[in-house]
Amino acid sequence: MSEELYKEMAQSIIDGDSDIATDLAKKSIELNMHPLETITKGFVIGVNYIGDQFGLGEAFLPELVMAGEAMKAAVAVLEPELLKLGEAREMMGKVVLATVEGDIHEIGKTLVGTMLSASGFEVVDLGVDQPADKIIGKALEINADIIGMSALLTTTMVRQREVIEELDKEGLRPRIKVMVGGAPITRDWVTKIKADGYSEDAIGAVKIAKELVGKADQ
Question: What's the whole-number mean pLDDT along residues 131-142?
Answer without folding.
Answer: 96
